[in-house]
Amino acid sequence: ALALALALALALAAQIQRLQASAPIPPSQQLSHTECTHGFETKAVEVCGKFLTAFTDAYWCEVDKDLGVGMFLPDCLRSAHNATMDKFAEVWKDSAKMKISISILLCIGTQNILDGKYVSARYYATYARYMEQYIAVLLHQTQALLNWPKIYEMFRLDPSDIHSLVKFYRKRISCTCLDDKYEEVKDTTKMGFCYNPKCKFPNRMPERSKTMYCSRCRCVTYCSRECQKTDWNLHRSACDAKAAIKAKFDAKQQNT
Fold first, then answer.
1. Mean pLDDT of residues grouped by 10 in the chain (256 residues)?
2. Measured between alpha carbons, how far is 76 from 84 in angstroms, rounded to an integer?
3. What are the DSSP E strand ranges found in the chain?
4. Residue 191's beta-bridge partner residues?
5. What's the number of CA atoms in the CB half-sphere (13 Å) around residue 9?
6. How far is CA 172 from CA 38, 57, 118, 159, in A?
7. Is residue 164 exposed (0-12), middle (13-18) or buried (19+ Cβ within 10 Å)?
């Protein structure tokens, strides 16, 4: 069952090769042999493997379009979601199958970290976190909105911030395969992101400990009150809409 699971999951690695154009890595080499499955779920693996391959195909199709029209991460993820919703409704509507799909991503991403392929691991973490957020909002209904800062956290990682990446996987796998790596990187600074386009931090990335959420919608983060005020005119309409959704959700939760 593990051999079949990995064979299906490895098809996902082809998408990541585009990020490594200088030295493309064949899909068969993206996940090296390992005796540990890193908590990999082998139930329903065939449909989940096909679902993930279709999802990442659709994601990268939108990334290619992005080169011309300026789309960004939420658009690409939503497009991949919409492109697979009908054909793989049995996965999107079943939290158990979604969790199996996430376990495939975590397995491959964990092995990529062990192999030093941090860029690939970052993308698998982004997909996994998006699916975790989908489960929480749409299936379990434990939160009102997708937490985009959490999703962006993996996507926008500073190359020096291996700490956040290793911690993400280590918290989610059942094995101890990343324990040594975590000890190696745990003292490096974790980086955040400021949503103010005029932020003066390099790449708008301050230390994460210095960032704060918008207290109304909790869907964006800033490095300072000054940056939050500067961005208010741009953020206001989205903030109002999301705060209204959150208020409605909170009221419903109080009445149940």
1. 48 45 43 64 78 90 66 86 97 96 91 90 94 97 92 79 93 95 93 93 92 93 97 96 94 87
2. 13
3. 212-213, 221-222
4. 207
5. 29
6. 9, 25, 17, 21
7. buried
